[in-house]
Amino acid sequence: MASFRYKTFGYAAPSAGARLKPFCFERRALRPNDVTMEILYAGVCHSDLHWARNDWGWSNYPVVPGHEIVGRVIEVGPKVTRFRAGDHVAVGCMVDSCQHCDQCRRGEEQLCREGNTMTYGGLDRITQELTQGGYSKHVVVRQEFVLRVPEGLDLSRAAPLLCAGITTYSPLRTWNVGPGSRVGVIGLGGLGHMAVKLACGLGAQVTVMSRTPDKRADALVLGADRLLVSTDPDALMQSANGFDLIIDTVPNKHDLNPYLPLLDVDGTLVIVGQVGPLDEMSSVPLLLGRRRVAGSPIGGIAQTQELLEFCARKNILPESETIRMDQINEAFERMERSDVRYRFVIDMASLTEPADATS
Ligand SMILES: [Zn+2]
Ligand SMILES: [Zn+2]
Questions:
Q1: Residues of the chain where predicted confidence (pLDDT) is lower than 70
Q2: Carries keyword Lipid biosynthesis (predicted)?
Q3: Is the pTM of this model over 0.90?
């Protein structure tokens, strides 16, 4: 293979907390099992915002965020068998893993013993160069981490399935949610609204749990059966032991104690947001009901493909607002105020090559 590197452009945060701005960079040379795709849509995840601002303390710069990527194949390496030019494809939160450990072998690449390679802010396993994400015109990814977008799934709305979707679908599958399951969803943002739609799609009875009744109408429109006000002691009492699984999508530090007694015996509360330390939690409801508190990170590649097929079949799509690339800083500010229903998706047709590009 020639060592041809792919010149591209996007939007990057040059340093912690800086506004995103146009950025020219190169993608790695195409390896034999690589797919080059033109990005058509990119979802805007809370992680993008946290990463751009170094909220977790481990960001590298410059960073091109974006790990909800939908596009079209434009070139494939000679050993690529699964894709060809013109295919509609997608990439999520990871772009590589060791491929041989026990977790990778059972399709749980997100749990790779050597650590998976993040779509942005990770290190390429061969060249050690910084990976860059989907707020850009092109991306090069090995075929094992490229998903197929099924016929019939609206490309302009599918992108949030690649992070918000799989992050909530995976625990629903891990804990065998199906017809008759009683599922609670805490928080009704990007992740929460997908948890509601997907749990409904699997046939569960779904309850949104919220501190105030304000979101009741929205919850019902999304398909939930009801909204439980988590600050109302009587309502909590009436719902005790009423849930098999509670998915907690709240993106900041909060108190789990009101929710634990809501779980039935052997019920699980699963945390899917990266919230850091939690408030103190009582062990009593855990012991008395053999209840569990668990965590769950995204999902494997095979399960992500399963999710895309499931959504195409059931006609489940994220609710999104389409923006232009140059509206990203404003979108970040609106996300901080929770002023989005429920995900921003960047239309990459709005991304033009910077005028001062030297190439
Ligand atoms: Zn994400
Ligand atoms: Zn592995």
A1: 1-3, 356-359
A2: no
A3: yes
